Amino acid sequence: MHAEHNPLFKRWKKGDKRVALVYPSSYASGIANIGLQQIYAEVNSIEGFVCERFYRDVFDCTRSVETGTHIKDFDVILFSVQFEEDYFRVARILSMLENTKALRVAGGPCVIENPLPLTPYFDYFYVGEVDYDVERLLEVVISDTEDENILKSETVLELSSSECKVNVRKPKLESHLTEQIVGEGVYGECYLIEVGRGCRRSCSFCVVRQIYSPCRWRDWKTIVEVGRRAKSVCKKVALISPSVTDHPEAKEFMWELVNMGLEVSPSSMRADTIDQEMADLLVACGQKSVTIAPEAGSERMRRVLRKGISEEEIFEAVNCIKGKINNVKMYYMIGLPGESDEDIDAILRLTEKVKKSGFRVSVSVNPLVPKPHTPLQFAPFGGAFESKSGKNALDSIKELKRKTGLLEKGFRKLGIRANVEKPENFAVQTILSRGDAEVGKYLLYGKSRLLRNFRNMLGEVSFDRLPWEFINHGYSSNRIRREYERLLEIALKTVAV
Ligand code: SF4
């Protein structure tokens, strides 16, 4: 870990309650997470509370970054759980703390998606976006009560099998952090500016659109003010939002920040928002590469994913950046319902075409994880339908391995650097993401055993009430079911099953 600038640090004094803020993944991604910075700032602003941070790669999550204090000496332990693959580490850390009095609280995207596999390890769950609400959270858990979306583990279990619902807290984006920690994170050493939350698009695989809806933007003036503050601390800002350039005033504030002399890094953007001006702006921002996420190679599969980007739009974007930015990163998913070898080949052809347009291309390919709350939550992992094709979950993994083999070979032939992920890891993520408390009990035994015991959960999910539907994100469950049926019609219409 590099040295960091931390104006939010608070020294512990006798009588203060210690709060551990645990990010069970790397320091680089944790320090680039604006939500964690907000929680840290809020706890430290409350009289009688002190917050310290824990990361996977700093003392293996057992001692704090600030003072090296052991996690067992804290009164409240707040875990921010962002990725399913971190569940194993979370279970391991918490099983070490079984005999301590610390209250164990979980929040973060995985909790507002489906907290059930984590119920054996936590006392409390915060179901919602916790910013501006940290004081209430601490009051509730310390007084051993419950309140609206601050739920005890046993309540979560009861709700999952009842008809009751919990409304997810989705606050207005109020004031932005002016003071923040600056460390070496995934966007480099920079200030973070959250320009918006949620996404107005409707990709069928995307959990962000569902669990962070409605889409909320920060106003132009606030963004620029935080930029001014950043200028006194560092040379770079990272703009945080699922799709920064969808902000109605994105170009205006990006130019303003560039004109202040700042390097600007948009965390994520859609290819169809790149026109000539945006391409010039990205150069002025200091961007050396552009990410394009067609997600699928063929138009048919992109319709299943409701990605809303045509090949024409991809090449319009590519033509705009030509001669200005030479590196393109492309993201794809495989294992989609109704996917054929032609769709796999289409990934290779599309990437080849971009390379031939004069770019240095790198590629990342992941198997689709059908996520709770999305229309594709019902889909079988790997995209193969047992009843229709006679295939089972193990066949799906084998089939995905065959497809990843085809892609690796194809990309090698094209001289394109590709990171094609292993299907097993994504099968495990699927089990965890759609799992229950029973699945959670196996976290201490590792991935292989989990996969062996629960591989029957990789198939298509029935339309019965789903255990995570007690979490109310404001969508209608029937609408999601109808959307899935429509997507399957597109997916299965043109292939033999
Ligand atoms: S554009 Fe990105 S963030 Fe928005 S719905 Fe699609 S995948 Fe999700």
SSE layout:
Elements: E1 17-23, H1 27-31, H2 34-45, E2 49-55, E3 76-80, H3 87-96, E4 103-107, H4 109-113, E5 124-126, H5 134-142, E6 150-152, H6 153-160, E7 166-167, E8 184-185, E9 188-189, E10 191-194, E11 196-197, H7 207-211, E12 216-217, H8 220-231, E13 236-240, H9 250-259, E14 263-266, H10 276-285, E15 289-295, H11 299-304, H12 311-321, E16 327-334, H13 341-356, E17 360-367, H14 386-389, H15 393-414, E18 417-420, H16 423-433, H17 437-440, H18 447-454, E19 471-472, H19 477-493
Number of domains: 3
Number of strands: 19
Number of helices: 19
CA distance, first residue to last residue: 52 Å
Secondary-structure-based class equals alpha/beta
Please state how the strands of the largest beta sheet are arranged side by side. Answer: 2-1-3-4-5-6
- Text of the CATH class of the largest domain: Alpha Beta
Mean pLDDT equals 95
Low-confidence stretches: none
Backbone shape: globular
Give the distinct bound molecules: iron/sulfur cluster
- Major beta sheet, specifics? 6 strands, mixed
Q: In CATH terms, what is the fold-level topology of the largest domain?
A: Transcription Regulator spoIIAA
What is the CATH architecture descriptor of the largest domain?
2-Layer Sandwich
- The residue fraction in helices comes out at 25-40%
Strand content: 15-25%
The whole-angstrom Rg is 23 Å
